[in-house]
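task queued by scheduler; priority normal; single chain, no ligands, no partner chains; default sampling; output format set to structure tokens
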Amino acid sequence: MIYFDKVTKSYYENSAPAVYDVTLGIDPGEFVSIVGHSGAGKTTLLKMLFAEIFPTEGAVYFGSRDISELKNRELLELRRSIGTVFQDFRLLPTKNVYENIAFALEVAGKSDEDIQADVPHVLELVGLSDKIWSFPTQLSGGEQQRVAIARAIVNQPDILIADEPTGNLDPINTHDIVEILKKINDLGTTVLLTTHNKSVVDSIGRRVVTMDQGRIIRDDKEGKYVL
């Protein structure tokens, strides 16, 4: 499904590349943890998959398509097939939980009937059915991240990108978020997780790709966080 073919990304001329000569394939349905110190190139790699930035050299393929060659409408379709979750939640503070998730469906052009059916369903999946009318300020950090995950998956994306999703959470909430990500993966969604948290990676026990200074230095099928 995803293939990085000898990808290099430099942000500035004559600067050290953020990602250097990376070749990486990810199959549908995989759960892949991408680990490494800050500045290792993890986020840059994911930004290229989402077509937020493009490689300086090499190509990123989604299926058989080179992402850099997609037209605007095709890029929009690509982005709709990828859900994203970040460390800082990015919820709309003036909208309640229902409205935050419904907004993602509205942007995708879903009908009112679909929205009324899909929002409660996805909230049940993340264990927040009782918070449907709450506002972000009324939620804990862990609950806010669950809402962010629900919003990311409500349109049933092929891929979920989780970029440091537990970075601001305590160990209990971190465990809960990891279990939700594993559940989503078990339902068939490809999950790409970046994290600094060794215990998170070790608890998942699935494929681990380790980056250092823009390069992939390890790729373990069922690994732990080793640097």
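post-processing summary
- Strands lie at 2-9, 19-26, 31-35, 57-62, 65-66, 82-86, 159-163, 190-195, 207-212, 215-220.
- The two ends are 28 Å apart (CA to CA).
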